[in-house]
Specification:
Chain A: This is Ndufa8, NADH-ubiquinone oxidoreductase complex I 19kd subunit. The complex is a heterodimer of chains A (about 160) and B (about 130). By secondary structure, chain A is mainly α. Chain A is built from four helices and no strands. Chain A has a domain of about 100 residues. The longest helix of chain B is centred in the middle third of the chain and has 66 residues. Chain B has one helix and no strands. Chain B starts with about 35 loop residues before the first helix and ends in a 28-residue tail after the last helix. Classes of the chains: A mainly alpha (about 160), B mainly alpha (about 130).
Chain lengths: ~160, ~130
């Protein structure tokens, strides 16, 4: 009889080397680490909006991982496409920003300078704008405030 | 008795008169008055609360930004996780099929619940 074992209590990580069934088309995983993902998050939300919404609606229909594989592949392809485009067009600005995020606990507010440069480049080259949904009417979005109260805590 | 005669002299106030009698309290100025201090502290507190309010609004917006950056990444990470979960699920099913091939009417990967709703498995592998 099998009992419940928490994954964390295992003495070694469980690895299942079996590949995906061949019936599922291959898609290269994005493989981007957290800081570049965080740096690109709002552009990803803008660029892949339809695919993301499609995927999330599909997940709302059924939580089975097998149910939304197709939509999931589209999301991943779109993300790969976006990261490639970002690297082609704004490589320096992108790297500056995500390196700054790496050095600042992955918080946006200490990295406004490189972020503004990146946002400008992304708007000029790719036409993508960072918008934060739910910002109150008539209030400057937090990433565009010139003199914020909260900067870096340590100088 | 011999009378000593001194010239007669009326005792008079000193030249310029006596100085004024010091009957008033003589206290040095001891800083701003109570009202000024009260007003100053009130003004300072008011400014502090104003800044606090501003800071709270800003903090809220920073939190919203952080939350949305994560929300935007959910589909991507979920899609990747789903592919992995599906791969493991299929592998587990194949294993189960292989183990239970001699048992008649055994359906590998069949849910233990009489419900078509997806139920994530409670364990990923029998250790």
């Amino acid at each position: 009889m099998s009992t419940f074992h928490e994954g964390a209590s295992s003495s070694q990580p469980y690895k299942d080397p079996t590949p995906l069934p061949t019936s599922v088309p291959k898609v290269a995983e994005l493989g981007t680490t957290s800081a570049p993902l965080k740096s690109a998050a709002f552009f990803f939300g803008a660029y892949c909006k339809e695919y993301n919404e499609d995927f999330m609606l599909c997940k709302a229909e059924n939580r089975d991982p097998a149910h939304c594989l197709k939509e999931g592949r589209r999301v991943t392809r779109c993300a790969t496409d976006l990261i490639t485009k970002m690297r082609e067009n704004c490589l320096q600005q992108f790297e500056d920003h995500w390196n700054c995020l790496e050095l600042n606990n992955q918080e946006y507010n200490p990295c406004r300078k490189p972020e503004r440069v990146l946002n400008k480049c992304m708007f000029e080259k790719l036409g993508l704008v960072k918008t934060i949904p739910g910002t109150p009417e008539g209030q400057t979005p937090i990433h565009e405030v010139q003199k914020p109260l909260f900067g870096r805590m340590q100088k | 008795m011999c009378a000593v005669t001194t010239p007669y002299r009326q005792d008079m106030p000193p030249a310029g008169g006596f100085e004024a009698v010091k009957y008033k309290r003589n206290l040095p100025v001891r800083g701003p008055g109570g009202l000024a201090i009260l007003g100053g502290v009130t003004a300072l507190c008011a400014y502090g609360f104003y800044r606090l309010g501003k800071g709270n609004v800003e903090k809220r917006e920073l939190q919203r930004e952080k939350t949305w950056s994560r929300i935007h990444l959910v589909p991507l990470l979920l899609a990747e996780g789903d592919r992995d979960a599906y791969r493991r699920q299929q592998a587990a099913q194949a294993r189960e099929k292989e183990i239970m091939k001699d048992v008649k009417d055994w359906e590998a990967g069949k849910s233990v619940y009489n419900n078509p709703r997806y139920q994530p498995s409670e364990y990923i592998v029998v250790l």
